[in-house]
Amino acid sequence: MGEEGKKKERSGWAKLDEAKITAAYDFCSGYIDFLTAAKTEREAVEQISKAALDKGFKTMDKIDELQPGEKIIMTSKNKVAALVIMGTQPLEEGFNLVVSHIDTPRLDLKARPLYEADGMALLKTHYYGGIKKYQWPAMPLALHGVIIKKDGQVKHVLVGEKADDPVFTIADLLPHLAKDQMEKKMSEAVNAESLNALVGTRPQVQREEDVIKAFVMNLLQDRYGIEEDDLVSAELQLVPAYPAREVGMDRSMVGSFGQDDRVCAYTALQAALEVDAPARTVICLFVDKEEIGSAGNTGLKSLMIENMVAEIMHKAGKNEYYSLRQALSSSHALSADVNAAVDPNYPDVFEKMNCSFMSQGVVLTKYTGSRGKSDSNDANPEFIAKIRQLFDEAGVIWQVGELGKVDIGGGGTVSKYLAHYGMEVVDCGVALLSMHSPFEVASKLDVYMAFLAYKAFMQKFSPRMAASKPATEKRGDEPWPKSTPVSPKWSERLAEQRK
Ligand code: MN
Ligand code: MN
Q1: Which of 155, 220, 300, 357 could make an S-S bridge to 417, C-beta 3.0–4.6 Å?
Q2: Cβ(116)–Cβ(284) under 8 Å?
Q3: What gap in Å lies between CA 431 and CA 415, rounded to an integer?
Q4: How far is the CA of 311 from the centre of ligand 1 (A)?
């Protein structure tokens, strides 16, 4: 792989002074705490709500009349959150939206998870999102989630995060007996139905059947007051049991489970907390279910945004259907999601002129999709031009990124569901190594730049930007010159270069 045609970029770090570098490191210590505390979408919503309420955001029921500058926190089903900062401009002129997702690939427990085999009790799982199944055995796992009893009582479950908590694990096959397994394709080497986690070996002695399972069930009953049937109405997830950590001798990176897409969620959250009296109304939205196609009533394929905007407009006394349509179609959005950083261990899948690199800043991704941009939102260049202007003026280090080589795979984000309303939208987020793995890696510089980028967009973006020149100055349809060199300018430039 060469880098023909592209001069070697200076590291983003070299473009920052000491104060900015310190600011990036400081910012990421808060980020590391967030990653460790918010491993599920419900926990993320709790963290987001707490941070917003602490900063003076109010829930809709506490607001009598919407005024410019008003700060609102909205949540839905405990798995979606939105921070809204009211602007001075009419709502029909649109919002500045930043949308990230707070769900992450992991192992969910099945509705009837607990069983016993060969002297052990185990939990059956069903993976959520695009995981490489071989990455999940042989590591410590923690159990997070909720169990809702028939009478509506909510039991919060969190086992495996404290230093002296027990953890769970999925046993892997020893190499000595893995001859057949090792010859399988990687996608088949670990079967989804063998991702069963160990939860116990001690039996309940007074019973004859299911004795080990009964011991575990008794522990659950003591602790949470639940019966086995209560697991039918539960949402329980197995996630890596370790905290987020700094990576590298220079501590310049963050390693953690769940950075897709909590890196964008955290940076957008911090940006929204700092926005003050914007001209356009800001919506910083955190959604669920992106990793499984944005389906369901907490995913962006639903009418969530429409309902949310309708609620804001209703509160502002604008109940006309046409105003709602105008507000949505005049909005501008950053789809805040991650991209893949070029990995020197796997150079063959990247096209280095167009892929994104670690520590080169926040990534603008014009389109995603697969094959011939199938299923992608392809951002309009008129909008990208404005974003370039905005980021450059705000001192944001940014780069472009396409997800790997053409025809080698692909992916998608929520951008197409936003574009559905007619609003302008482009993907903008952080480049990761090991994306979708139990330990994803990001550069602290890129994390910090995402924060600066979202803050500039929320606070300052205006559709009137980059409009100092008429949109179509020249059509470029004058005849192409017949001989070369034709332009004195060009000869001058050549002479200049030869000096
Ligand atoms: Mn994502
Ligand atoms: Mn993802």
Answers
A1: 300
A2: no
A3: 17
A4: 27
Span 236-269, pLDDT tens digits:
999 999 999 999 999 999 999 999 999 999 999 9
Q: For residues 243 and 36, give the distance between their C-alpha atoms in angstroms, rounded to a whole number.
A: 5
Residue written as tokens 């329980």? 236
pTM exceeding 0.90: yes
DSSP classification of residue 249: T
The domains found in the chain, sorted by start residue, are: 12-104+257-460 (3.40.630.10), 112-240 (2.30.250.10)
Q: Are 173 and 115 within 8 A, CB to CB?
A: no
CB 50 within 8 A of CB 66: no
In sequence order, the 6+-apart residues with CB closer than 8 A to the CB of 161 are 142, 144, 241
Give dist(CA 494, CA 206) in Å, integer: 93
Rounded to the nearest whole angstrom, what is the distance from the C-alpha of residue 337 to the centroid of ligand 1?
Answer: 5
Between CA 428 and CA 335 the distance in angstroms is 6
Q: How far is the CA of 231 from the centre of ligand 1 (A)?
A: 29
- 151 neighbors 229 (Cβ within 8 angstroms): no
